[in-house]
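Reopening this one. Same input as before:
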Amino acid sequence: MSGWIRGWRGRGDFAKVDFYTRGTFYFLLWTTVASQVALSVTRPVRHSGAPAALIAASCLLAVAQGVAATGLTSRGIEVYLGKAQLGWRPVALGAGLMVADVAVSVALWSFVGLREEPMGTSALAAAAAPFLMAYCLAIRKWVSVAVQAGALVLVCGSVALSGASAGEVAGCAISVVGLCGWFAVTVRCSAWHLGVMWKLEQSKDVQAQLAVAEERLRFGRDLHDVMGRNLAVIALKSELAVQLARRGRPEAVEQMVEVQRLAQESQREVRDVVRGYREADLGVELAGAQGVLEAAGIACDVSGEVAGLPVAVQSVLGWVVREAATNVLRHGDAGRCAIGVGVEGSVVTLTVENDGVCPDPSGSGSGSGLAGLRERLGVLDGTLTAGPAEGGRFVLVARVPVIAGANARGSAPDPAPQSPARLDFAGDAA
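Same output, byte for byte:
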């Protein structure tokens, strides 16, 4: 007993509801079967002169129909939830047993007379109920209504053919409509409730899968943003160190020391990405971009004030600065770059402009960098535009509402946005 209780407590909410719903269906089904069997062996039936074989056949058919309807009910639930298809064999078996049970029950109660024993109409309704209750789970509601009507015609027609009066046929019709109709409504409503629970359960699984996928995207996006600029600078300084070493210049050692520092910094940042602690600071990124670009021989002018901006806005714009600086280094032959931060009304605008754009501004990149920025900005309802401008310039503009940043907690969330930012560009820079 204790093991059963532990097993029940270990079930999830949907498993408990599923168990309760199925148990209720089976209870109703077998209660109906038991009622028919009990009515078939009552005193009026036994003293009516009905053959014992007919009474036994009625009881056996009721039990057989109950067994078939149990399997059909289980299958019908799976069909209703969309987890299985309904084959024709269980339906044919259940329908055949129902027809046989109704025919035998009509023959049995014709010995008693429905007028003398009104409970006979309940027995006839019980003979049709198990199959109808199970089958209505697997079909559409309007088809179920048609099947119920067909069963009503079958039962009432059989009673009429047995020589019953119009009143007896009407009483039988009321019993069939009342019992079978109530079963159909009850079963369909319970199945609908179970279906809602099933969809909620599925949505939880989907959410878990999405969370895993979003975490993978976050890791890949952060790794790209963190390593992109550092690797570009390492490659640049390594090439410079090689040239200086070939000329016997002592500055080659300084360049390699800087490469070592960048490699160590990259290791630290990668560890931060893995741990999920990596955030970009706008002020730090602006200073870093200016230093890196000027070290590469690109004049960089930084303007604007970042103090007072929400942390989330600074973080997401910091990633934009990092990616933009990487693009300036990797694409084209820039000699000048201007980075500006400004607040226009309730929107923070970051502009990165550089010259020396090559004929194909997209370079050889796939654009994953700007796509990652689009995702980050989209979380805060931000937008990103990037493309070539007049005079061989390339302009990147990112806009973020201040209110969206103030409402965010700490920094821009990592998961993929539900309302992605617009990305309009004539040529990709990443």
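So the earlier flakiness isn't reproducible anymore. For the record, The chain is about 65% helix and 10% strand.
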